[in-house]
Amino acid sequence: MKRINGTIIFEKPPCFVSYAAVGSKKEGEGPLAKKFDLILNNSNCEQKTWEKAESVMVKKCLQSAMLKANITTENLDAVIGGDLQNQCTATHFAMRDFDVPLIGIYGACSTMAQSIGISAIMAQSGAMQTVAAISSSHFCAAERQYRTPLVYGAKRAPTAQWTVTGAGCAIIKGQSDEKTAQIKGVTFGKVLDFGVKDITNMGAAMAPAAAQTIMRHLNNTGNDPLHYDAIYTGDLGHIGRILLLKILKREGIILRNHKDCGLIIYDRQKQDVMAGASGAACSATVLCADILPKFKSGKLKRVLFCSTGALMSQATFLQKESIPVTAHLVEISAVNTE
Amino acid sequence: MKRINGTIIFEKPPCFVSYAAVGSKKEGEGPLAKKFDLILNNSNCEQKTWEKAESVMVKKCLQSAMLKANITTENLDAVIGGDLQNQCTATHFAMRDFDVPLIGIYGACSTMAQSIGISAIMAQSGAMQTVAAISSSHFCAAERQYRTPLVYGAKRAPTAQWTVTGAGCAIIKGQSDEKTAQIKGVTFGKVLDFGVKDITNMGAAMAPAAAQTIMRHLNNTGNDPLHYDAIYTGDLGHIGRILLLKILKREGIILRNHKDCGLIIYDRQKQDVMAGASGAACSATVLCADILPKFKSGKLKRVLFCSTGALMSQATFLQKESIPVTAHLVEISAVNTE
After folding, report:
1. Complex ipTM over 0.95
2. CB-CB: which of B105, B128, B313 is closest to A89?
3. B111-125 and A111-125 are packed helices; what angle lies between their axes, rounded to 10 degrees?
4. In this predicted model, what pLDDT tens digit does every residue of B62-94 receive, in sequence order?
5. Counting Cβ atoms within 10 Å, is residue B338 exposed (0-12), middle (13-18) or buried (19+)?
C-alpha cells in the first residue's frame, strides 16, 4: 500500500468477487428493476415493523452475495457495514443470524464507500481474506426517524429526496481468480459543514463534501476526471448535482462524466421522487445492481465511486444545528486495466 | 499480520504513542479523578445542550492526545471512533473542527476496542501511519435517548449502570521510538442475543458476548488467562461480571485476573451508581487514564482489553425486541515483552 497525502493506493489491488442488491416495490418499478437480485413485493417483508423489515433485507442481501460467490460463514472473516437506523439496528439485528464478526460503522449515506474502503484495506493487509461490505436503508423507517411519521401525510418539498428501501452487499477479497473488478484506491472523507440546516435538502448539504473528496482524490492521484469512464456520487440528487458541478467549475474542474446514483435508481419524473433518491442503500444498490455488473460485462473500465453522507440526527435538527457532511471515495477499475 | 481463525496477530506490533482522558464532575469524584487529563466542572461544558457538551469533550480529548504526542492535523491520517448518540453526532460534530478524515464507527460501548483494533490494522498495514481512536458518552444524553429524560426523575433499578460522561482517545502508530505499549492482536466480536430485554440490565445482556470473545482470543492464541496480568472487560458492572465468571467457569475457565472498567471508574457504594459504570466512554477513559499509564510505569506487562456493547435502540426497545450484543478485544503488551 502506498499513501499519497490522504489517498491510499493499492499496489496489489483487492477485488470484488461477488455482489447483490435487494430492493422493494418502488425500486422494482424503477429503471434498474430487472438488475436487482431480489425485489420484495412490499416494504414490510412480512414483518411487524419497518425496522425489522430492513433487517430482513440486510440478511437476504448478505446471503445472496455469499451464495453467488460460494462463500460460507466459515470463510467470511468479517462483515463491515451499517445503516441509517438509530444505533444501526438493521445491521446489528441481522448479524445475530451470522456466525461472523461484525465491524459496525456509521457514515449515513456514505456507508457503502466507507465500508468498501475499510474492507479493501483489511483484505489487502492480510488481516482478513474475505470481507463483506454492506449497507441498507428503508424509506418509511428513515422518514419517521429523521422527519415525520408517514401517517402525518407531510407534504414533500421539491428539494426532498426519496430514501431507497433496500440493501447492497459487495464481497471483497485480497486476491482471487474469480474477480469482477478491483479496488485501486481509497480516499476517506473529512467532516465539513457549510451551515445548511434544511433536512429536506440533503443534496445541497452534501455537495461540498463530494467536491472536496473528489478533488482530493484527483489531486493525490494526478488523474484528470476524464481518466475515468464515470465519476459516481452517492445521493446528491438533482439539486446537489448542480451544486457539485458549480463548485468544481469554480475550482477549474469541468466534470463531463458525472453520474449520481440518486438520479439512476428511480425515474424522477414518473416515480414522484422530487429531487431524486437518497439513503444508505442508494449508492449501495446502484453499485451492486448497475455499476459492478457493467464492469463484468466490460462496459466500464475505470470509475470513481463517492458515497455522500449527511450526519445529522433528529436531536441535532430539533436543537437547530446545521448538518455536518462527509464523502468517502473508492476507485474501481476493471481487472485487466493498467 | 497473521490470522488464526478470527484473531489477527501483529508480527510487527503497532503501538500507542499517546492517550488522553476527559471526564466530568462525577468522574472527578471517583477513584481515578487525578489520573484524568481534564475534569470539567459540570456536564454542560458551558453548552446549551448535553449533546453539544459531549462534542466539546470529544474535541478537548482529541486535542489533548495530539498535543501530548506533538501531533498536528497534518500528520494525523485519520480519526476512527464513535459514540452513543443517534447517528454518532458527538463525534461527527466535533470532527468539523479537525482537517482530518473521519472513519465513523458504531459499536455502542464496545467502540473503544473496535476503534483501536481497526486503527492498529490501518497503522500496521501501511494504509495509514498515525491514527487516533476515540470514543465518548454522556450520562444525561444517554439516559434521555435510551430510557427517560432525567427530569422525569425515574427510579434507577439496582441492576442499572451509570453512563460515564467523558471521552478517551489513544493515538496509534505503525512504528515509533516513543511508545507506551504495543498492540499484539485483535479479535473482533460477533453479534449475539440471549434474549435479555431489560434495558436497565446491560451487564446481563453483554456478559455472553464478553465470554465468547475472550474465549475465542484465548483459544486462537493458545494462551492461558494467567498469561496476562489482567483481563479487562468494558462495562459489565457488578451483575455482568458475576455472569461472565459463571459462563467461563462452565466452560472450564477460571478467571482470577478479571477486572471490569465499569467497576473501576466510580466508587460503587459511595457514588450511588448501582451496578457500576457503563457507556462508550467507560472502557475508553479507564484505558487512557488507568491502564495505559500503568504500562508506562511498568506496572502492567500484558493485558486483554475487551470492550462490550449493547446494540439496542429506543425504537427496538419500544418494539419489545431483545438486546443484541457484541464485544471486541485487543491484546496490549509492554514494549519490551516477548
Report:
1. yes
2. B313
3. 60
4. 999 999 999 999 999 999 999 999 999 999 999
5. exposed
